[in-house]
Amino acid sequence: MTKKNKLDRRTIYTINTIKDSFLELINQEPYSQINVAKLCRHADITRSTFYSHFDNLTAVLNAVLDDAMLFTDDTQVATTIDPTVSLDLLKENESLLPACQRIADSSKYRQLLMDPNLNDYIIGRIVAHEKDQIVPAIQKRTNLSESEAELLFIYSIHGSFAINKRHHFVKDDAWYRELQLLNQFTSAGYEFIKQNNSN
Prior knowledge:
The chain is an all-alpha fold.
């Protein structure tokens, strides 16, 4: 085993320890009450160790949110789900879901995602991550301008987040049924807009 492999493993372990400690603190108090010193004490690490991996507390938040929202570098873009897709297929293939609906239903992220002080920030992260891919896809489906497509995108992100929050980020049968209904609604809306713009 090389020294580099040991270091990589140690680095990954430390980063995961910081993220896990952050989530443990979130389960005890709101994000607004957490700071770097408190996180370091909880993780049993020094501030210099923390700063060798993260620039600040927001960087930890972003890393944890990326984990929770299953963000990847996958180039597959879904603006809505095909309304004919069965619930069983959706349950078996998370990759079919748009990013705003792929939010993990792991209990370890639940309190973080339910923190009302973070809702706008989380939605902003989803928008920033997905905008460059989703807005052009909406334009293609609707023949709308970029600003109009972005409006629909932001509207759908807020709605999807609200539905996830209503279900406490638990993907049960009711969540999948509502998801299918909302996607039928959205798909029909896109088709209507495209027909109107073609006339």
